[in-house]
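Predict structure. Chain length: 74.
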Amino acid sequence: MKKIIPAALLTLVATAALAMAPSFAQVDTNKDGAISQSEAEAVGISKELFTKADADHNGTLNMDEFKNLTVQGK
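Prediction complete.
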């Protein structure tokens, strides 16, 4: 029983964090179809995390890269 409660609490916290993640459209404030590093930083995505998520290394996140970032919960 003691092991179940912390696991359940962790699951609730992780689920809540993902539910609060902004959508691609919300982060792409200039509506150019890509998320710049400054747009990402404005919503709390660190430079290091942005760099890891930028799979094609073009300096922006496309929708797939952003989805991978938010699904992984990093």
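Summary: Residues 4-19 form the longest helix (16 residues).
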